[in-house]
Every structure is written in structure tokens, then in C-alpha cells.
Amino acid sequence: MFAAFYWEGKVYGSRWNPSAEGNALGKVYRYNISGNTLVPDGDFIIPGITGSYNIEGWTTDGTYIYGVNETNRIYKIDPATWTVVQQINITFPEAICIAYDPVNDGFWVGQIGDEQITFLTSAGVTTSTVLTDGDYYGLMGITYDDYSEGGPYIVGSFGSSGDWYNYATLGRWNIATGVFEENIQDLTTIPGSPAFNNSAGGIFTYTESGKFNLVGISQGATCFYAYELAEAADPASPAAPTNLTVTPGATGAFTAAVTWTNPALTVDGGTLTELTKIYVFENDVLVETFNNPTIEGAGSYDATVTAAGSYTYKVVGENTAGEGLSAKAIAWIGPDVPAAPGNVTLVKNDQDASVSWTAPTTGLHGGYFVATGIVYDVYRGNTLVSPNQTGTTFSETITEPTNVYYKIVAKNDIGVGGSANSNIINFCMTIDTFPWTEGFEDEIFPPACWDVVYNGDELTNWERTLNSYHTGVASAYHDWNSADLDGWLISPPIQLPSEGACELSFWTRTEDVSYYDSSSILISTESNVPSSGDFTTIKTLSGDEVSMYWQKISIGLGDYSGETIYIAFRYEGYFAHLWYVDDVMVDILPDTPVIELIPNPFTAGSIYNNLPYQNIRTLTVKNAGGAPLTISGFTSTYPFRITCYNWRRQSGRNYP
User: Fold this and answer.
1) Residues of the chain with CATH 2.120.10.30
2) Which of 26, 98, 534, 537 is deepest in the core (most CB within 10 A)?
3) Where along the chain do the CATH 2.60.120.200 domains lie?
4) Cα 346 from Cα 393, distance rounded (Å)
């Protein structure tokens, strides 16, 4: 339910379900730390977050904030403006938690049902580097720990394969060895925290008062838990400098004035009596050292940079006890790139799409900005359709059913600026060209002109998944829950031809087969509303059709020739199975008989003393055509048995 991160003395969090009361996509809740209590300090929306879930996992590299929400992207967020400045496309499916690794300059990511944590480069490329373990499930949060002895580690918050809904624990992986090292804490045993009788939530780390702390959250709970993992600095070393500011030079100059007040206290809160050095770092590179500075005196550094950009300055004091705590400040130096375009609006006129927007008037990072020379890249979804245009409108004709939205990216001669997405419009058309296919590859779900209807638990219904698929990278998926579920995935209207017979085919697989309840296919010739009573069941999966392996199901549609139909995939069950559907196709059958062999090629069983030795193979022979098929006989090198079916298609409906 909750993921969080620490930034500049405050805790920020998000609730995963955007449909929960008072929540929304991109909504972030801010808290002040007051002793053992988090005090609410307002909330705000980060624009540009899309998908079925709000941000589920957070991390930071010290300059930017990063978030994931089971889409194919990492959101890179500037905390100075709380805007998305980049969407890093990733190939890792459905990332639910993320941790930045400063040593390897990349991200560790995990998903809820995957028993490994995978490393992605800073560009979002999945690598073969993984952290593994065989006995955890329900991974909800991870964070990077380079303070604990023997590290660095990835610390995870997760459940168990036996009961991940009511179990929560902390464990850690050693990055050097790549394996799970130990459990740290059974969170359900924390004294005085009955709220942890629920599944694990997000976790994060931060440094404060000389301690390196780990903080976690329980789903559904109203409390956080915290651990002191290590000392970040010697208690007698200097506390952090105060009043650190970075003031960029005027009119976009490549200069900045960095000022601060030297520490007056030690890390443990005592009076500082010794201060031997002050160090100034620019983007983690030491740029200045001040010897024997005055305790609680004013400090300054004049910065000069060679290019416009975001710069992080860190100031830290030192005495004979060692380096103390640091203060950090971030500023954009030099001319800024444009902020995101405003009022991006898509309108539909028949099949014409027109999108318009307003030009940005400020810099993306709050820096010096000149509102001239702005150009725009226009994307339809992730497809670039108009690069480097100067106008603030774009139009085109949509030629196929699809969910349409546009992303407008503003640029100037400094670089790529902010981006903003339009509203989504469903460009629906009646399907009358065949073969027609749907593989659920579009990130927007349901696909264009499809509908999802639920008659049960609102939060458990049809969705797009990257966990399992027949082809491509995605499929449609219905999860189970301990509730009465009745989920419908309904196709666009399909106009079948009057002549010839059509066939519906799709690929399906089922998980938790022993809990199977009902997966059925229905057709309506009147409406796409289940409550209308117009849908008729034409197939309910049974027997070998309910399998953990992908298999193709074919259903003749000859009885509906010449009609406009809607096809529905209906999931029913209580604490039941999981159903995947992929590669849905409606096609016109050939007007000749066609022999289809499954499998093809076919390998016979092993032979021992001229008899099959506990190895029976089944060869299925089907008529995949639209005309009668006559089989005159079979010949085989090996003994075989024939089971007969109706070999004659009747209006394309009956076949083996």
C-alpha cells in the first residue's frame, strides 16, 4: 500500500492504488520527522505518471528521485520542481521496487512474484547480474546499504512462499557474491506493532544525526519501523554545516556562489572545539579545501562550470575524529532547458487526431531561461511522428483502432527539456478486415475499443502483464483473490463476412490449475454490456484445455456469418486460478479442407522389443479449412490407436 523515500529532512510516500479514496496517479504525501512520529506536511501531484498503479518503489542517487510502478519505465524526477524530467525505458517486466547502486551506477529492481533481484544499467538495460534466493515471495521493497559491515548489500522487505499476505521480514543480499545472506528481522514480531500482521511494504535508508538508518512500512499499516544500521560518522566529528545555499550567476552565467556556515556542534550534539578542514565537493569531486576554518564561521566558494546543467555541492567538516556529516545543495547553473509544455489537449474529429499545447515560459529546473528557439518532438505513444517542429499543434489521421495519446517534448539549444502527455482518446472502429489480431503489446490496457467489466472485486480484474506471454512481451491476465470474482474482457465490434466461415483462435494458459473454477468465452450480437443478457457462452475451458502450458484454442464462428459480434473472455472464481490470454485472432477459413497436425513435426515414442515402452505420443489431426475433409486411412511404422471425431465442419463450427 505504501512506498516512501527520504529527501532533505522529510519523508515522502505514495499509496500504490490510485483508485483508493483521496489518492491519484502521481500523488505524493510529505511528512516531517518529529521524534518517533511522522507528522503530515501536505501532498502534491507529480504530473506525467501513467499506468495502472501509482509509484510503488522509490530511490535516489542524491540528485534525482527515481520511481517505478510496474510499467516499462523508470521515472526520473527533479526534486527541485517535482516534475518528471526523463522516462528511462526498461526491458525488465513489472518492476515494483528499485534501489540505486552508486558503485555500479545503475538500478537493482525486483517484482512481486520473481525470486530474484536484477541489475539494470543507468540507461535501463537489463543485465544478467541477479541476486537470488529460493524461499521468499511477495518482494515489496529494496534499498542499498553500503554502511553495514561486510557490504554493500541490497536489503529487501518481503513475504514467504507459504504466506506472503500475512508475513513480513527483512533480509539482505551480498552484492559481491550475488546470493541471499541472512534474514535480519521477522517484522511481525516487532514489539507493540500489531499492524504488521499484514504483508511487507516499501523500505528506504537515510543518514541523520550520525546514524545510517533503515526505515520500512507495512502495507495497510499506519506505522513505520526503523533500524540504526551503522554510524555514518564518529560522534566527536563535526556535525553538518548549516545554511548551505547555491546561487547561480545572473543571466545564465556559468558561475555560482556557494555559501554556508561552518558547524558549531559535534555529531552527537556536543560543542565543537576542533575544526581542522572544510571540504567542498562538486558532483562528488573535491574542488576546494579550507584549512583551519573558524568554528561557526561563514564559508564560501565561487564555482565556475563549463556547461549548463544540474550541479550538486557537498560541504563537510573534519577534525581529528574524522570527517563529519555533510550538507548538500543542488542548483541548475547556466541557461536552463524549457519546462514541460502546458495544456496538452487531444481532440478527435471522426478519425482525425489533433493535439495542441502552450509553449513553456520557464526553465525546467528553475534556472535562467529565454523563451525563444524552442522546438518540439511529438510522439504518438512512444513513436516519434514529428521531430523538431516549431508550431504548437499537430494533426494526423488514425487508420486503425487504437488508444491514442501524444507526448510533447520541449527542447532548446541547451538540450532536452520537460515533456507532457495529452489525454487518451479511444479511436474505435468496427473490425472488418481479416485476419484481425490482438497481442496486448500496447502499454495502455485495455487495448483500443476493448472493455473491461467487473462484477466482483474492483481491484482484481483483467490487466496487462509481462510475466507470461505466448509471443511478444505481454498478455492479458486475470489474477485470483479471496473474493467472488467475475471479470469480463470484451473485444471491439467485429463484422463477420456473409460468405465463408470465420474462426476465433487464441492462446491460453492457467496457473494454479488445481484451484480452477471457470474460464469461458462468450459472444453477443447485440451489445457489449454483460448485464444486458445478450452474451451466449460458446466455450468453457475444461480438461486438458486448463493447463499451465500455453496452448491454442480454436472456435468456429460460422453460425455468426454476416453479423456484428462482441467476443468476451470471462473469468469466474473465488480463491481460484490465474488465467492468461494472448494472440487473439479472428480469420476467414480457407474454402478448402486443410489438414493441421499437432504437434508438427511429430516424434514417435521409444520402442523396446517392438512395443512402446511406457512412452505414448498423441498426434492430433484437424481440419483447419472451411470445407469437408475426408480421411481415407492412416499408415504408421509403429502401432497406433485412432480416436474418431467429426471431420466435417458445419458452418465452420464443428471440428476435432
Assistant:
1) 2-231
2) 98
3) 436-588
4) 10
Contacts of 618 (CB under 8 A, 6+ apart): none
CATH of domain 436-588: 2.60.120.200
Helices (H) and strands (E) in the chain, counts: 0, 51
* 613 φ/ψ angles, rounded to the nearest 5 degrees: -105, 90
CATH topology of domain 2-231: Neuraminidase (2.120.10)
Mean pLDDT of the residues in the chain: 84
Taking Cα atoms as reference points, which of 404, 407, 427, 403 lies closest to residue 416?
407
Query: How far is residue 326 from each of residues 84, 186, 380, 468, measured CA to CA in Å?
Result: 27, 33, 45, 46
- Asked if residue 293 has a cis previous peptide bond (ω within 30° of 0), the answer is no
Which of 263, 422, 429, 453 shows the shortest CA–CA distance to 354? 422
Here the cell at position 319 is 577534525
Specify burial of residue 341 (Cβ count, 10 A radius: 0-12, 13-18, 19+): buried
In angstroms, the CA 69 to CA 200 distance is: 17
At residue 457, the 3 state secondary structure works out as coil
CB 3 within 8 Å of CB 202? yes
The single residue listed with the C-alpha cell 560541504 is: 315
- Classified by CATH at the fold level, domain 342-427 comes out as Immunoglobulin-like (2.60.40)
Instruction: Please state the φ and ψ torsions of residue 514, each to the nearest 5 degrees.
Output: -65, -15
Cell numbers found for residue 338: 524549457
- Considering the entire predicted model, what is its pTM? 0.58
Residue with cell 463450427: 653
Weakest-pLDDT range from 85-99, 118-132, 157-171, 525-539: 157-171
Instruction: Spell out the SS3 assignment of 262-301.
Output: CCCEECCCCECCCCCEEEEEECCEEEEEEECCCCCCEEEE
* DSSP three-state, residue 479: coil
Taking the C-alpha atoms of residue 467 and residue 26, their distance in angstroms, rounded to an integer, is 24
In angstroms, the CA 45 to CA 39 distance is 19
pLDDT tens digits, 425-453: 888 889 999 999 999 988 778 888 899 99
User: What phi, psi does 198 have (nearest 5°)?
Assistant: -160, 175
pLDDT at 115: 60
Q: Which CATH class is domain 242-333?
A: mainly beta
Phi, psi values for residue 195, rounded to 5°: -65, -10
Residues 6+ apart with CB under 8 A from 514: none
C-alpha cell at 376: 518540439
- 215 contacts 205 by C-beta, under 8 angstroms: yes
**pLDDT per residue as tens digits for the range 598-656:** 677 766 554 444 444 445 566 677 776 666 667 766 676 666 666 554 443 333 333 33
Interval 74-118: pLDDT, tens: 999 999 889 988 888 776 767 888 999 988 888 999 876 566 788
CA 588 to the chain's CA centroid: 37
Q: In which residue ranges of the chain is CATH 2.60.40.10 found?
A: 242-333, 342-427
CA distances from 646 to 58, 554, 629, 641, 643 (A): 58, 15, 10, 17, 10
- Where on the phi/psi map is residue 345: left (φ > 0), alpha (ψ -120 to 50), or beta? beta
